[in-house]
Design brief:
Shape of chain B: globular
Number of domains of chain A: 2
Structural class of chain A: alpha/beta
CATH class of the largest domain in chain A: Alpha Beta
Strand content of chain A: 15-25%
Distance between the termini of chain A: 51 Å
Strand content of chain B: 5-15%
Helix content of chain A: 40-55%
Order of helices and strands of chain A: EHEHEHEHHEHEHEEHEHEEHEEHEHEHE
Radius of gyration of chain B: 18 Å
CATH class of chain B: Alpha Beta
Radius of gyration of chain A: 21 Å
Number of strands of chain B: 9
Helix content of chain B: 25-40%
CATH architecture of chain B: 3-Layer(aba) Sandwich
Number of helices of chain B: 11
Oligomer: heterodimer
Largest sheet of chain A: 7 strands, mixed
CATH superfamily of chain B: Thiamin diphosphate (ThDP)-binding fold, Pyr/PP domains
Structural class of chain B: alpha/beta
Chain lengths: 385, 296
């Protein structure tokens, strides 16, 4: 069924089609329509779920963790400050191995107050043990939430499905909503091996000494690594059933590319236009979109980057005092390889500032005269010196 | 009265509580009433440790260790899951210390109470952060010593009135209890079990390690707290109908309670007088709210 949906409603539909059983959420701009529609869906009985209208995001995640540990499929959505408030519980969800799915709308962090997009909120949660998927359109939001549950419930690690504030959350796009019966066949109901069950009483998260903790963390990393295969298989099968295959990364015109643009989220959509315009000028340019950021697609990135002469990583985020976060990760992936191209790290579009295809063309062309970047961090579009 | 106490032991042995720990006696008896069809969630508190290190557990009911400020929210999530999974009969019980209830967890508790979540929230109150080494909490009484309220600068403010705060939420049931009056606690928990909605139980829990009292004085201190009217045993229905369940006809002076504890050893006569005055005032305020006093 094709519907015109804003990104926020795509989130609600993704949770509905996944048959989330417990939703616990707290409102925050720009996520509000997502939870409003979910509240409506629950109230009208379209979605057979209990909506716990909690008093904070910290409690939202705590309730999701409790629900998941008791054996229910749990969902929440938040943004920016809300995600930051959840931070402790993000660690808890992953450490407790509860397959919670969370939609995060990338909102730049305050102060100063802002509601517009950048990725510092979700990337600040990089090391919590959550898988992260960055979406480029509203279709991918619906599809990724469904896939997220399938991967999450096998890997027993939570998943954050990420989309840009306003550029997606409030933008109407045509979305092909998957058929519920097909989703049910694709995504089996949640039936965890271990749960809070009086018939089989077990204690979850009890105090560990130095003899156990390290191994539990090692197993988390192993699950994260194994989930790469799950994401690929899940994305491929999604394509077989619904006609839209997904992978850890997406490439565009990379076969003969000499210069590669590496980016994520909606900037990737814009970059596709930039690639076409640069190709019209005779430039051999390609695009690599990082879709799944955790687990990090190291092998896939190495394979493509090792065959290009130059890479430009465009980050809508910053690690103050270092560089863009995707850029750091790409560089780290390439360091121990023989054929690594020069990597230009660009920071742009912080706080939702528009990034146009012309901006991306300018970014690429400014690297032309330079075999190596002048600096490890290049700001595009800052209006002060 | 002893027939009230079930012979069935749910809590196992092998817990690692200190000698004379009130919170352990309380858990043992609470579980006897709550029964095996119970799911516990415990935020950071002494019981995080008492239950036993992984892979050991003394609880013998499913137990989810939760983050410090999340007892109310975690219990809400577990409740929602059981309701969705057709397991409505399982009782969801948050078991938290005073730090996790009066201080860091009050927001999640207030949220759960305002939503009238179908949970039993039990706070075992030992009047300080005992698990981290006796730091003051909002439950620490006036002039008490803790490691963060040293003798040269003891606590200057009274214990937070959590019962009134919870009553202001107009939840269906609130009760207080303590180890010396275990039958009173059992009756209250039995009553709580039959009620739907948020039930808040405050259990006064002597702590020899933190109060600098003798382990063998735990029950005695608990009794003196009631007999001095410092910790009245009450229940409240719907936040409005207050009852005293253990009547104290002739209160003992509060000094009888204070003098058995090292945490009050530094008190001047004047300070003891002020504590007595505050106990008397609180009692008068309570009497104003009470609709009925019952004979024990």
């Amino acid at each position: 069924m094709r519907k015109v949906l804003m990104g926020n409603h795509a989130i609600s539909w993704g949770a509905l089609l996944s048959r989330a059983q417990v939703i616990a959420a707290y409102p925050i701009t720009p996520q509000t329509q997502a939870v409003e529609l979910l509240a409506e869906m629950c109230a009208e009985g379209k979605l057979d779920a209990k909506f716990v209208k909690v008093e904070s995001e910290h409690s939202a995640m705590a309730a999701c963790i409790g629900a998941s540990a008791a054996g229910a499929r749990a969902f929440t959505a938040t943004s920016g400050q809300g995600l930051a408030l959840m931070h402790e519980m993000l660690h808890w969800a992953a450490g407790a191995r509860t397959p919670v799915v969370l939609a995060n709308i990338n909102r730049a962090m305050a102060p100063p107050w802002t509601i517009w997009t950048d990725q510092n909120d979700s990337l600040s949660q990089r090391d919590t043990g959550w898988m992260q998927v960055y979406c480029q359109n509203n279709q991918e939001v619906v599809d990724s939430i469904i896939q997220a549950y399938r991967v999450s419930e096998q890997a027993l690690l939570p998943v954050m499905v990420v989309l840009d504030a306003f550029v997606l959350s409030h933008t109407l796009e045509t979305v092909d909503l998957p058929d519920q019966e097909q989703v049910d066949a694709y995504l089996p109901s949640f039936d965890p091996e271990f749960k809070l069950d009086p018939d089989n009483p077990r204690t979850f998260g009890g105090l560990t000494a130095m003899d156990g903790y390290f191994e539990l963390r090692y197993k988390m990393h192993q699950s994260m690594e194994q989930s790469k295969g799950l994401w690929e298989e899940t994305g491929r099968e999604f394509g077989e059933v619904f006609g839209r295959p997904y992978g850890l990364i997406e490439t565009y015109k990379t076969a003969d590319a000499e210069l590669l643009i590496v980016t994520s989220s909606t900037i990737a959509s814009t970059a596709r236009v930039a690639v076409d315009r640069l190709r019209e000028k005779g430039r051999k340019v390609g695009l690599l979109r990082i879709r799944v950021f955790r687990p990090f697609p190291t092998e896939e990135i190495r394979e493509i980057l090792s065959s290009v002469k130059k890479a430009v990583v465009i980050d809508r985020n910053i690690s103050y005092g270092s560089s863009g976060i995707f850029c750091q990760e790409v560089k780290a992936a390439m360091y121990n390889t023989a054929n690594r191209p020069p990597i230009f790290g660009i920071i742009t579009g912080l706080g939702g500032r528009d990034v146009s295809s012309t901006d991306i063309i300018n970014i690429v062309e400014r690297t032309d005269s330079k075999p190596l970047p002048d600096s490890d961090i290049i700001f595009e579009g800052v209006t002060i010196q | 009265m002893s027939s009230l106490i079930s012979r069935e032991e749910i809590m196992g042995c092998g817990h690692v509580a200190c000698q004379g720990c009130g919170a352990t006696i309380l858990m043992r008896h609470a579980l006897k009433v709550l029964g095996r069809d119970t799911c516990l969630t415990i935020p950071a508190c002494c019981w995080t440790v008492i239950d036993g290190p992984f892979p050991h557990s003394a609880a013998n009911v499913p137990l989810f260790h939760a983050a410090f400020m999340t007892a109310g929210a975690t219990a809400s999530g577990i409740r929602a899951a059981y309701d969705m999974l057709g397991r409505e009969k399982i009782k969801v019980v948050a078991w938290a210390g005073d730090g996790g209830t009066y201080d860091i967890g009050i927001q999640a508790l207030s949220g759960a109470a305002e939503r009238n979540e179908d949970i039993i929230y039990i706070c075992y109150d030992n009047e300080a952060y005992m698990n981290t080494g006796i730091q003051r909490s909002a439950s620490t009484p006036l002039y008490a010593w803790t490691t963060t309220t040293p003798v040269s600068h003891p606590k200057e403010t009274p214990k937070k009135d959590i019962v009134s705060i919870m009553a202001a939420h107009r939840i269906p049931y609130i009760a207080t209890g303590t180890v010396a009056y275990i039958e009173d606690m059992i009756k209250k928990l039995q009553k709580a079990k039959e009620i739907k909605g948020t039930r808040f139980i405050l259990l006064f829990s002597p702590c020899p390690s933190g109060w600098k009292s003798k382990p063998e004085d735990t029950v005695k201190l608990s009794r003196l707290a009631v007999k001095s009217r410092l910790f009245p045993l009450i229940e409240i229905e719907n936040g409005t109908d207050w009852r005293v369940t253990v009547r104290v006809e002739k209160p003992v002076p509060v000094i009888d309670y204070l003098k058995l504890q090292g945490r009050f050893r530094h008190l001047t006569e004047e300070q003891v007088g002020l504590i007595q005055l505050s106990v008397d005032r609180e009692w008068e305020m309570l009497r104003g709210k009470v609709i009925k006093e019952e004979k024990q």
